[in-house]
Amino acid sequence: MAEEDQNEVGVALHGDVLETIFSHVPLHLLLPACLVSKSWNAAVFSSLRRLDKPKPWLLIHTQSIHRPHCSAAFAYDPRSDIWLRINQKLPPEHVSALSSASSTLLYTLNPSRFSFSIDPLHLTWYHANPPSVWRVDPIVAVAGERIVVAGGAWEFEDDPLAVEIYDIKTRTWERTEFMPATLKDSAASTWLSVAANTKTIFMMEQMSGVTHSFNPDSKTWCGPFDLRPDRNIYFSVIAFHGSSLILLALLGDPGNTTDVKVWELTGESFEFSKEIGVMPEELTEKLKGEDTGFSSIRVSSIAGFFYIYNPGEPGELVVLEIGDEGRCWWGSLKNAAVSDRNRVAERVVLTCSDVGLGNIGRAVASGNEIFTVK
């Protein structure tokens, strides 16, 4: 009996040691370990569950602005603090400008085709007929199994506020109620910040804070609301975090940014605000670059992770993680996908994804070498 107990303890210690080791292995390198034995497989998943959980990945897509529009994709895994290169190129038909929406959707749109990808690593693309209204800078958002495309119409179109909904399951388009007339002068992705969950899409004017919401089920609009909690805000963006809206705002003026603050908005119309964080001064200075201020920021987020950057200085990223009770953790990250030599000639698009071992397994099963440490 004593010998059996000793063996059982040995097995338990061996499992703990394996889990500790696996907690230091990058996620994309854990897949082979799962195939060694059942005990190793169990140790890998136990380690990911108990010791070092996967964190949302940042994906950065670069595309040349010149034909043939060569593209590349990079990924940052915050759990392992490493950059990876995704070696799968976009299909040849992707000659239109890459864009992203709702932090998880990657798409291209031209007069003959709407192409999009919603899987975590954007290895699978779907192709559909374009919306009936030709658009050059639309607001695009994912709400459940639907993609909403609004505004951004070509200047000669008759319906600049037109809204169309693409049903991913039925692969059909539907025209619906126009955007509110108050958004006529800002009905483009350049001017609006968008946050969406499965039920509602919020569109906020980045300069004024004026916000409208759209319900894809009832196809109705509500608003306007003013989401700005501070009159010193000159630019702001929004994103969902659970059932709350997170508002990230620049204070001061574009020539002299004094603060970057974070508010959590709650309530039926998100009328209640609570300041939960201020970007550390040294990180604000990194976003400024050589300037004293900046006119805008861009954010890609999922599951409490927010990757923030200055579109005029995309080489530096600020990382914000919002935890329980609105606690904020800040950090900075060099954008390994951007080089000074190619910055002007490349379009840079960000998405975020929850990437797990299953996603990595499917990528490897495609037959290509998907990941290379950068």
UniProtKB/TrEMBL annotation:
Q: Name one Pfam family in it.
A: F-box
Database matches in Gene3D superfamilies: Kelch-type beta propeller (2.120.10.80)
Q: Which residues form the F-box domain?
A: 16-46
Which residue ranges traverse the bilayer? none
The organism's superkingdom is given as Eukaryota
Give the PANTHER family listed for this entry: F-BOX DOMAIN-CONTAINING PROTEIN, F-BOX/KELCH-REPEAT PROTEIN SKIP4
Question: In its UniProt entry, what is this protein called?
Answer: F-box domain-containing protein
Q: Which organism is it from?
A: Hibiscus sabdariffa (roselle)
